[in-house]
Write a structure and sequence with these properties.
The protein contains 13 helices and 3 strands. The chain is mainly alpha-helical and 342 residues long. It has a 3-stranded antiparallel beta sheet with strand order 1-2-3, with no helix packed on it. Strand 1 and strand 2 form a beta hairpin.
Length: 342
C-alpha cells in the first residue's frame, strides 16, 4: 500500500458549492505532484505512527503536540537517524492536511529531535555521507565491467554518464531515449524534472567527447543505445532492468514499471556493487549519490568555475549542498594550516 490512508474520524460532508469542487483530473494531478517514492515513504511512516498510537492508547488523528513529541522520543530511543525522524514528522503533517485538520505543533517534538542529534554526535555517530567517486576510482570500476554482456554495457554507461552529468540517481532512472540528442560535439541530455525543479522546467546538459574511450560518456551511451536497438528497443527508458539470466526484464512479480525502467535504488546498488568488485577502499560507502558528489569535487579540484559546476549539475545558485561538497574537497588541498611555517 503506497498511499497514506486517513482513518479514525468521520469524513467531511462534500460541499455542493461548484466553486469548491475538484475534477478527478485535478485531484490526480495534485496527488501526482508528490513523487511516488515520497508517497510510499510517507505511507510507511504514517502506518508506523498509527500503530504506535494504537499500542499506546493515543489519538493519531488528530494528534496532539505531546503525542508527536512522545513519538519522536520513541524513534530516538530506536536509534533512528534524524533525517528519518524529520520525514516521519512530515508524513504526520501531510496526513493531517489530507484530513483537513491542523497538524500538531512541532516545537516540543523539535526540541526532542535537537537533543537526539546531540546524543548522536556525542556517541560518535556522524551523519552518513555518500563517498565521492574520484576519476581514478571510476576508471577502476569500469575496468571490471564486461561490456560484451547486457549488464556490463548498461552499468558502464550508467556510471560514466551519471558521473559526467553530476546526476541524482532519480534523474538517471528517469531518463528516456527521447531525452538524448547526439551532435558532432557530443551528447545533449535533457533532464525533464528533478528534486529541486519544482516547476518541471527541465534543463539541458551538454556532454562532450572525452579522451578516454572507456570513460567517455558519449561513446558509452551510444554503445548502450546501439545494444538496445539490436533488441528492438528504440524508445522508452534508457536504463532498464536485466534479469538473472542476463536478459532485459520487465517488472518482476508485478512490481515496478511495466516497461522495465530501473529504480533510483537500483542505481545505488549498481554503483556499490561495482565499487566492491573493483576492490575500492570503503567500497560499501559508495552509493548512487557518489556520482553526483564525485562530479562536484573532481571538477572543483580541476579549477572549474563554481557557477558552471552548479549549472551543469542542476544545483541552485548559491547551493549550500554544493558548497559543502567543495568545502570537503578543499579540507586537504586548501587547508588553512598549509605553508604557515609549523
Amino acid at each position: 500500500m503506497n498511499e497514506i490512508e486517513v482513518r479514525g474520524r468521520p469524513q467531511p460532508v462534500t460541499s455542493l458549492d461548484p466553486d469548491e469542487q475538484l475534477s478527478e483530473t485535478a485531484r490526480r494531478r495534485i496527488h501526482e505532484s508528490v513523487p511516488a517514492s515520497t508517497r510510499r515513504a510517507y505511507a510507511g511512516d504514517w502506518r508506523r505512527f498509527t500503530l504506535w498510537c494504537t499500542d499506546n492508547q493515543r489519538s493519531h488523528l488528530p494528534a496532539t503536540a505531546a503525542t508527536l513529541a512522545e513519538y519522536v522520543s520513541h524513534l530516538a530511543d530506536q536509534g533512528k537517524a534524524a533525517s528519518t525522524i524529520e520525514r516521519a514528522m512530515a508524513a504526520i503533517a501531510v496526513a493531517h492536511s489530507s484530513a483537513d485538520l491542523a497538524a500538531p505543533h512541532t516545537r516540543p517534538a523539535r526540541a526532542v529531535l535537537r537533543r537526539h542529534r546531540a546524543e548522536l554526535a556525542d556517541g560518535g555517530r556522524a551523519v552518513r555521507k555518500a563517498k565521492a567517486l574520484t576519476v581514478t576510482a571510476l576508471r577502476a570500476m569500469v575496468d571490471t565491467l564486461d561490456v560484451a554482456t547486457l549488464a556490463g554495457a548498461r552499468d558502464r554507461a550508467l556510471i560514466v554518464v551519471g558521473f559526467a552529468l553530476g546526476a541524482r540517481r532519480s534523474e538517471l532512472a528517469a531518463l528516456n531515449i527521447a531525452d538524448l540528442t547526439f551532435t558532432d560535439d557530443g551528447l545533449q541530455v535533457t533532464i525533464r524534472r528533478s528534486k529541486t525543479d519544482k516547476d518541471s522546467l527541465g534543463r539541458a546538459t551538454a556532454l562532450p567527447y572525452t579522451s578516454r574511450p572507456a570513460t567517455c560518456p558519449v561513446r558509452n551511451m551510444q554503445a548502450w543505445l546501439d545494444t538496445l536497438a539490436t533488441l528492438g528497443e528504440t524508445s522508452g527508458p534508457v536504463f532498464r532492468r536485466i534479469d538473472r539470466h542476463g536478459n532485459l526484464g520487465r517488472a518482476p512479480h508485478g512490481r515496478g514499471e511495466a516497461n522495465g525502467r530501473i529504480t533510483g535504488q537500483a542505481v545505488a546498488i549498481i554503483v556499490r556493487r561495482t565499487a566492491l568488485r573493483a576492490g575500492l577502499d570503503a567500497a560499501s560507502a559508495f552509493s548512487g549519490h557518489s556520482l553526483r558528489r564525485g562530479f562536484a569535487t573532481e571538477t572543483h579540484r580541476r579549477g572549474k568555475n563554481p557557477l558552471r559546476i552548479a549549472r551543469h549539475g542542476g544545483w541552485k545558485d548559491g547551493s549550500a549542498t554544493l558548497a559543502g561538497y567543495i568545502e570537503d574537497a578543499d579540507q586537504w588541498e586548501d587547508n588553512a594550516l598549509t605553508d604557515v611555517g609549523l
